[in-house]
Amino acid sequence: MKSEPNQPSLIVTAIIRAKAGKVTDLKNALVAMVAPTHREAGCLNYELHQDLDDPATFVFHENWTSKAHLDAHLASPHLQAFRAQADGLLAEPPKIMLAEKVA
User: How far is CA 92 from CA 18, 42, 54, in A?
Assistant: First the structure.
């Protein structure tokens, strides 16, 4: 889904770090969430990035049309499935930043 000009959106940045020895497993689990998330109502973009200097660090950059759509995403089956396996993959809880564009 593409953003309309001047359409407000909620920007989410999520920083996720893999446990030692779990980089590939975490990457596979994160990649598996991308396609179903793109099909969700209100998803403007959902991009996964991997840090070049620290491959154990992943960053999601997301844009949602509203907080309600983000909340629906957080309750989605694929995100809940990820949460069920997260303890074995994550070095620490994800760092999540919610923002809005100001300029």
Answer: 8, 28, 15
